[in-house]
Amino acid sequence: MYDKEKIENFHIRMEEIIEKFDKKQAFELITTELKDCEDKYLTEFMAPLNFLNYEPVLDWIEENAKRNKNITQDWGHLSASSNFSWKRAEKWLEMGRPLSLIALDATMFCTTRGERLNQSLLMRELNPKLTDNPKLDKIANGLKNYLKKDSVPRTKNVIDKIINDIFEIG
Predict the structure, then answer these.
(1) Burial of 133 (0-12, 13-18, 19+ CB in 10 A)
(2) Looking at the whole model, is its pTM more than 0.90?
(3) Shared-domain flag, residues 164 and 81
(4) Which structural domain, as residue segments, surrounds residue 140?
C-alpha cells in the first residue's frame, strides 16, 4: 500500500526547494532524493519535476524509467513539461519500451490542439509543443513506422490520437 502522507510530505518539501532554489539546484536536490526513494513511489515523487520546465529532466527520465513497472501518462506529462522534442521522441521510439511509451504520451501532450479537457491544469497552461517544431508529415510517418513494431491497442490509440490532432481530423 501507498503511504499517502509520505507522498504529501515529500511534495511539500519539494515545493519549498523549488521556491528557494534556481532550476538547476532544485533539479539536483530533487533528483538526489529520488535516487533513494522506493521504486513504488517514483511516479508520485517525480511530480514536482514538472514545475521546473527543465530539459535535463529528460535525461533523468531516460536513466530512471526502467525503475517503474507500470508506465503511466505521468511520465509523458513530465517529458512534455520538460521541453520535449521530436528528435528525442525518435530516439526513445527506437530504444523501445518503456521509453517508447513515454515518447508517445509526451508527443500526444505536445501535439494536442484545441481544448485540453482531459489534461492537467499545468499542461493546459504550459500548452507544450515539440521544441524542434518538426514537419507534421515527419511526425506522422515516424509514428506509422513505429506502429509496425508495436501495434498493441495502447500504442495504436495514442498514435491515432496524435495523427488526428496534428492534421485536425474529426
Answers:
(1) exposed
(2) yes
(3) yes
(4) 69-170
Contacts 24+ apart (CB under 8 A), 128-134: 128/80, 128/81, 128/84, 130/84, 130/85, 130/86, 130/89, 131/83, 131/84, 131/85, 132/85, 132/86, 132/87, 134/86
Type of residue at 126 = L
Q: Do residues 45 and 95 share a domain?
A: no
For residue 132, give the nearest of 62, 61, 63, 58 by alpha carbon: 58
pLDDT at 123: 79
Number of domains in the chain: 2
Cell matching residue 138? 515527419
> Does 64 map to a domain?
no
The percentage of residues in the chain with a pLDDT greater than 70, rounded to a whole number, is 94
- Dig out the grid coordinates for 48 from the structure: 514536482
